[in-house]
Specification:
mainly alpha, 2 strands
Amino acid sequence: MNEMELVELFGAIAPTLRAAIRAVYKCGNFNPLEAEKRIKLLNGYYADMYALPMVVALAFRIDTSGAATVRNALLERLCRRKEKQVLLVSMNNRMPYEC
């Protein structure tokens, strides 16, 4: 999603969105090379497109009603999953503990 789409989705103003993006990068959770991609438009300008993990992080960082709607939708989908998860632990390569 580009910046204008995110502004419309979250119901925030562009400076608030940009500040939240800088804060996410400052925390060190995302690398800008992985979280955004710059694409060239037909008119010669460039647009920054943000990946889904960045959109999710912004939804939890921005405090607007639009962001709350996105957060609730994400949490509802995560909590609705009823698949069983299996945790496999390998005990073959045990390291001896020294005291």
